[in-house]
Each structure stands twice: as structure tokens, then as C-alpha cells.
Amino acid sequence: MEGDIFSGIGNGSQLGVDGKVLQTFQKSFVQVQNILDQNRLLINEINQNQESKLPVNLTRNVGLIRELNNNVKRVVDLYGDLSNSFSKSMDASSEAESGGTTRSDGKKRGRSG
């Protein structure tokens, strides 16, 4: 994709992550950006309603503010998921590079033989 956020990364090999991971990150970032764009519109409408001081508009703001709060929660969740995915991909990448395996208790063990 031209101009996407990962265009300077190439195939991801510089970061030690594969294309699937980058696609997941890009999808999540696009979701976040869409929510933030929606929030901007909500905030503008909330401000206009507040300035109008009309009871019907002020009442409408209650629902708009709820929607805004839910959107913020979604963004936080998406960033949390991104953070977890990134950590897992970096762990998997460093694991693959070291050639070691991870025991069930989470400690690394090297190759034998």
C-alpha cells in the first residue's frame, strides 16, 4: 500500500517480524484512526450542542458523551491488544533467532546436542 504506516519497513525483516504481524498492526492502527476520527466528529457535535444551550441538544449530548466514552475504551483495548501482540511477536522472533525453546514454566532452554 502506498503511504501506509509500514511502507518504510519493507517486508518486516529489519524488525524481525513477519508480514502477518505487520498486517495485524496496520489493521489495528486503521481501526484506532477510524475511531479517533469519529471521536473528533462527536466532540464537535457535543461542543455545538453545548453552545446552543437548547434542552433537546443538551439531552442529546448525554448519548453522544456515552458513545465517546465507549470509543475511548475501544481505543485503549486496541492499544492493549497491539502491545500484547507486539510483545509476543518480539518474543517469538528472539526465540527463533536464539534457537532455544521455552519450557512450560516459561524459562528458556537451549538446544541439546
> Helical residue percent?
55-70%
Query: Which percent range describes the beta-strand content?
Result: under 5%
Q: Write down how many β-strands occur, each being a DSSP E stretch of 2 or more residues.
A: 2
Structural class: mainly alpha
- Give the uncertain stretches in residue-range form: 9-14
Describe the strand arrangement of the main beta sheet, using strand numbers: 1-2
**Largest sheet composition:** 2 strands, antiparallel
Describe the global form.
rod-shaped
Note the run of SSEs as H and E.
HHEE
The radius of gyration computed from the alpha-carbon positions, rounded to a whole number of angstroms, is 22 Å
Distance between the termini: 45 Å
Number of helices: 2
Average pLDDT metric: 81
Task: Explain what you see.
The chain is mostly helical and 113 residues long. It has helices at residues 19-52, 55-98; strands spanning 101-102, 108-109. Strands 1-2 form a two-stranded antiparallel ribbon. Helix 1 runs antiparallel to helix 2. The longest helix is centred in the C-terminal third of the chain and has 44 residues, at 55-98. The chain is rod-shaped and about 65 Å long. The N and C termini lie far apart (45 Å). Mean pLDDT is 81; it is low at 9-14.
